[in-house]
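request received
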Amino acid sequence: VDEFELINRFFDRPVTTPGVVTGIGDDGAVLEPEPGRDQVQVIDSLVEGVHFPADSNAADIGYRAVAVNLSDIAAMGARPRWMTLALTLPQKDAQWLADFADGLFEAAAEFDVALVGGDTTSGDAVVATVHMTGEVEEGKALLRSGAQVGDTIFVTGTVGDAAAGLDLLRRGVHDNFLINRVLRPSARIDMGCSLVGRASAAIDVSDGLIGDLKKLLDASGVGGELDVERVPMSDAVKSCFDEADRIGFALTGGDDYELCFTATPDAVEGIADITAVGRITDGNELVCRQDGDIVEYEDSGYRHFQ
Amino acid sequence: VDEFELINRFFDRPVTTPGVVTGIGDDGAVLEPEPGRDQVQVIDSLVEGVHFPADSNAADIGYRAVAVNLSDIAAMGARPRWMTLALTLPQKDAQWLADFADGLFEAAAEFDVALVGGDTTSGDAVVATVHMTGEVEEGKALLRSGAQVGDTIFVTGTVGDAAAGLDLLRRGVHDNFLINRVLRPSARIDMGCSLVGRASAAIDVSDGLIGDLKKLLDASGVGGELDVERVPMSDAVKSCFDEADRIGFALTGGDDYELCFTATPDAVEGIADITAVGRITDGNELVCRQDGDIVEYEDSGYRHFQ
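response:
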């Protein structure tokens, strides 16, 4: 099932309801309850056996369920305010729930997000769905659709860490910076807010840099060039993996929850921890260049645990 | 797993975040993005094999996923505006998805609710989680906690129809008014709005009249008396089931999505389709009376399909 295709085919119908500024198709919806301040709403599920192994630490699941939604809020340039939780679970002991709640509240506390409602249901596998509401100044939400020809493509932080961490986890390695990056991702809320009024388009890197950048290009109706050798990677990934592996992780691995955005270099001068990795062109494709040559990378999309 | 106990134990922590008027513990959260108008947010999941049989009609599942959330919005006296969908599903064919979407949009169109976002994930069983946002005048949301000693207890429409319909479904009966009541419940949005400023407390009857009324009494810190012979039942349920069965359906069956509320009789004069079924007392228990005798009914709670 291809999420994008599904949503487009069956759920993206014309909206005539008042107050809907941006509906389906971005990292979040932009809503205008009343003039002056826009609201951003996002929803994301983590499914046992798909987004985390069945034997995962409950606190990590709770933390991550919040973090992935925070990342969508960040990609919209909004500040998170409230969230609700729908939790489907088999019989779990009290310790599991206490740990899950601890992880959830730990992630929420970092940005003072309140849990304001919930629904628990029984089911064979754990499904944790968080809905989050954020706020942003009217008309200022960062959309995927604003990239302009000539803009520079930037990435925050380093990418590929989470996919590398997942690879280590699968091989039984623990206690590593890279593993922390996949289990406890940090959403780029402050960065997203800094980019408001400066970036022309933004998306969070949840499905892999190439896949997510392509979505941004499609939404903006432009093409792009990505300079592979400029893609920022951590020292940790460089020390654990050879070049071919780490480039694969960085370009097609998911779960990094960094931001990919477009802007003119002037607009983002002085913002730390961002790297220029390419440029927007007037085509309609993404071209990857490595040391001068055009290279092809398969867009593997989300890396399932199972 | 008892939902109520779970939520109280692990998720209902003190909220200090600005803008949260009412958090966990009611039919929905009441939020104040800015002064003047409050927002109500609710979230509810339907799980395959628990809330609907695995072979259910996809359009019915889609319809019901929206309706159960509309009912929570109604119980708060709010008007629904926007919703998001998180859909976990195994490989389903396009026809299933098209049907699901049709049912979902049909229910949404009845109250002009826009689908503004979504997330689809793969999993072994279908889980459809809808989050809905509604609006209500500042400070006017109907809470569970406002019932006063001496208030009358009312129920809208008729109760027990859904549990009766489920019983018929299990016995292979189709094409019946009662079955439509369980597959296509009608949320009492207009009723909820009519009760704003008139009812002292309200809850929707999703888990059974006795169970839900007890929640309202607990939240209000009061007791109540229920006159069993006054509980409104449809002609359909009367014609298909004997008295013992239909009283069981009406008192402990779930899924009716009617409203149970408290008010003085004067306050709700002129409102049609409501029935006085009891009164609020200064105790802390619910007493059921039938033809003058005190009777005990087991609070069976939600009727699982499995």
